[in-house]
Amino acid sequence: MAGSTNDIEQAVRRPRIGVFPSSTPCVLFYVVGALATVGIATSVAVGLSDRVPVARLDLALAIALFAGSQLARVYHRVRGEAIMLAWGEVGIVAVLCVVPAVWLPPVVAAGALIGHGFRLVGATPIVRARALYTMCVLTVGGLAAGLATTLTAEPTTTLRVTPSDPSALLVLLLAAAAYYATTSGLSATWAATTTDNPLAIVWGSAVRAKRFMLAIAVPVAVVIAFVAASGPAALAALVPVLGLTHLTYVHRRRIVDERRMWSSLADGLRGLNQLDEASVATAALRGALDIFGPAEAELTWRGPGRPVKRYAMRGNEPPPGSEQDQPASDDGAVPPARLSGPVGLHAQRALTVGGEQMGELHLRFRPALPLTSADELAFSTFADAVASALHDAGTHRRLQDLAARSAFDAVNDPLTGLCTRSTLVARGNAELSRGDGNRTVSLVLFDVDGFRAVNETLNYDAGDHLLRQLGRRLAERRRDGELLGRLGGDEFALLMVDDAVPRTDPVARARELAAALAVPVEVAGVTLAVEASAGVVTAEANTSEVAELLRRADVALHTAKSTGSRVVRYDAVAGGPSRDRPALLAELRDALATPDQLGLHLQLTVDLRSAVPVSAEALARWQHPRRGLLLPAEFVPALEYSELASGFTLHVVDLALRVAAQWSTHGVDLPISVNLCARCIVNPQLSELIQDRLDRHRVAPDRLILEMSESVLDRDGSLVRRVIEDLRASGVQVSVDDFGTGSASLSFLTRFAVDEVKIDRSFVAGMTESAETAAIVRTTVDLAKDLGLRVVAAGVERTEQRDALLELGVHIGQGYLFHRPVETGQATSIILAAPGTSSGG
Prior knowledge:
Helices cover 52% and strands 17% of the residues. By secondary structure, the chain is an alpha/beta fold. The chain has 4 domains: 5-233, no CATH class; 272-312 and 346-410, Beta-Lactamase (2-Layer Sandwich); 421-574, Alpha-Beta Plaits; 597-833, Alpha-Beta Barrel (TIM Barrel), CATH 3.20.20. The protein has an 8-stranded mixed β-barrel with strand order 15-16-18-19-20-21-22-23, surrounded by 4 helices. It has a 5-stranded antiparallel sheet with strand order 5-4-3-7-6, with helices on one face. Strands 9-10-8-13-14 form a 5-stranded mixed sheet, sandwiched between helices. The longest helix has 39 residues, at 373-411. The radius of gyration is 49 Å and the shape is elongated. Residues 1-18, 318-343 and 572-579 have low confidence and may be disordered.
C-alpha cells in the first residue's frame, strides 16, 4: 500500500474525533468510492466484452500477490497515529506481470478487501470509515496504474520483461508511479481535510515516511519483473526472498523507531529541568507526545497540602491556558483521568515519590497500537523522571515561598506589614543621600499611650490586634514621599521627604495622624479609645541620617509624654542639644582612639572657567556606632570650646595630609584645606605641631591650607597675628573662611597677612538678587586683588552665580554646581580624570 490515510496523519496538529468532522471529507469519501466502483465496473465490462483471456489461476495469483503486499506492512506511531507502510507499488508490478492491465482495478479491489477487510469487523465507526476509504483509494490507484499502462502498452496482454526486451520494465515502473501518486494524493487529501492541515505539508510528510520503503521497492519490482518472464509460477520462488526483505525492513524500522524513541526520551528528560510545577507538567506532556506519539496525554498531580492539578494536551496543540483543580478522593487517591474522544489504547503510570502515589500520567493512542517492550520500559522511566521533577519543582516552590516570606519579614513588620526599624533606616538614608539644600526631611515618632495596660488587662492577642488596627490607619493615610514603619512595641515612625513649596508642616501632619490613631477601636469585644504622643524633628536633606533623626525624635517624644503635650518638635525641646553635649564629648574621646570612626569627605574647589579642580577642602565625618553618620554641624559646636578641640583638629590634619601624600604617588600636587578650631588659632606651638605632621607625611607645606573663621581671628589680635606669621613663614597657606559673616570690617584684611579670602555662601547666594550684596562682594574682591590675595567663592549652586562671579573677576569657587562632598577615593578618581590637575594652588 503506497499511502493509506494513516500514512499521512503523522503531521496532524489538531486531530478531530469523529467519522466525518466536516462535509468535505464526506464528499471526498463518496467521490472516491464512486470512482472505484466505476473503475471496477468499466474494467470488468471491457475485459468481458473484448474477451481478454485470463486464467482463473492467474487471476487468483494476482489477487493473492496484491493482498500479500498489503498484509506485509509496518506500523510507525507518530503524533497519536499508527502510520501503516505497505508494499503496494511492488504488488502493482507483480499483478501486471500476471494479468493484463484491463483486469488491474478488480484485482486490486479484491486484494485490498482481503488485506483490509478484517478492519471492518467489530471496529469503531471511524476505523471502518478509514478502512473503506483506504480500499476505495487503492482501487482508484489500481485504475490509475491501468490507465498509465494503456498509454504506453497494450492493456489486453500481460507484460513480459526479458533481457532481450526490457522496454516493458519502464511501463511497469510508470504504472507503479501512477499508483503511488494517486493513492498518496487521495490519502493526503483525506488527512488534510480531517485534521485542518495544509495538503502540501501532509503530502510531504507521507513522502518522507515512505521514502526508504520506496528505495527498496524499486529494485524488488525490477527483480519481480524479470523473474515473472519465466512464468507466473516462478514468482512463488521469490516468496522467501520477499519475506526476508520484508523482515529486514521491519527490523530496520524497529531499530530506527527505538533509536528515535530513546533520543526523544533523552530530550524529554532534559526538558523536565524546570523550576515550577506548571512548566514541568507542560514539558512532561510535550515530552510524552514526542516520545510515544499518543493522541492525547494527561497528567494529574497533587503536591503536598495542595489540591489535585490536571494538565492535558492533544497532538501538537499548545497546552491549555489554565489548570483545573480537582479534590482528591476520601482515601487520598488521585481521581482517574478524563480523556476525550473514543477509547483506544490507554496506557498509564502512577507518579510516586517515596512510595507514595502523588499523581498519574495517562496516554491515549488512536488507533490502538500496542506498546512494545521498549515502549513500556521507556514509559516507566519517563514517568519516574516526571514524578521526581514535579517533586523537585514543588520543593523549589516551597523554598521560594519560604525565602520570599523571610525576605518580606526581614524588611516588613510581620504584625502590621509596615517597614521595620532597619528598613526604615536603610530606605530613609537612601532618600536622604539624594537630597539637596532644597529638600527638608522630617521624622515623626509616635507612641501609644497606655498600651501596656491593654496587654495586661485584656491579653497580648488583643494588644497585637490593636497594633494591627493602628498600623492600618496610618497606612491608609500615608502620602507620596512618606515612609512608614513600626519600630517595635507600640512605636511607629513616619519619615517625610518634602520637595514641595510651601512645605508640609510636620507638626500639623503629626497632629493629624495622632488624631486618626485616637479614633475608638473595638478589641476583643471592648471599645478602646487610645491616644498617641509624637516627637517631631526636621532637618535639611543630606545633613543627617535617620538614626540620628530617630534619636532626636525620641528626645522630643519623651518630652511630649512627660509634659502631657500631644506633639513636641525637637527644636523646641528645652536643653535638648545641651543634654547631648556631655555624651557627645565622651563618645568623641572614644572615637579619636578608634581608627575607623572619624574620616574625611572632600569637596573639590574648581576653576570657575574650566571646572578643573584646583584644591580640595577636608570635611570631617563621624561614623557613630549608634547615631549613624554625623556631619560637623552636629558635633563641632559641642567640641569647639572643649579640651578635645585641638586634638580633633590635628587628627583631621593628619587625615588630610595622608590623602595629599597618596596623591603624590599619582603625580597630583593639589593643595588640601582644613578648618582650624578657635583653640588652635591661639596655640603658640601650632606651627611646630603642623610642621611635625608635614614632615611625617612628607608633604610640602604649600600643599596645606589652614582655614580660619573671621570671627575666630578677631579674638586676640597680637597672638593670632603671631601664629599666622609663623604658619606662613613655614610655607603653610592661610585662608579666611566665611568672610563677611563676622563683626570685623574690610580693614581686617589689612591687619592680618593671609593668602586667601573665602567669600561666605550667603553672599554668593544673594549677589544675583540683591544689589547691596553684589556691591559688598565687589568691594571685597577689589580689596583682595589690591592686597594680592586669592579669592574663593563658597556655595556656588547656580550657573548665574558662576557667571556673576566671573564678571567680578573671581575665578575659583566650590559648590554643588560642580561637586558635592564625596569620599576621598571618589574625589581622587575625579581629580585624575580631569585634565590639567597635576598642579594647583
